[in-house]
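Many introductory courses stop at the sequence. We go one step further.
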Amino acid sequence: QVQLAESGGGLVQPGGSLRLSCVASGSILSIYTMGWYRQAPGKQRELVADITRGGITNYADSVKGRFTISRDKNTVYLQMNSLKPEDTAVYYCKGHTLTGDYWGQGTQVTVSS
């Protein structure tokens, strides 16, 4: 019922910035929270940030002060500043519903000089 499509990934130098976007379509009224997760090579997928329908945000300690999550109707954004090589990962958009979670296809973020 819910489809998520991420965009905005790419190659950036350390200290640079990127903005990821995730557009939700389908039964979007069923989404209570949306979030960004990432998975680095050899690592498990981890929460980066999420935001509730009421605008309450939550961040992983590793990105606090550098990343900002926001939501505008059917789109969620992740503004990433002061990027570090350890931020390199595939970033996934996630929609949380009462009956289950929906995932986007992922977008690659590579931070390298």
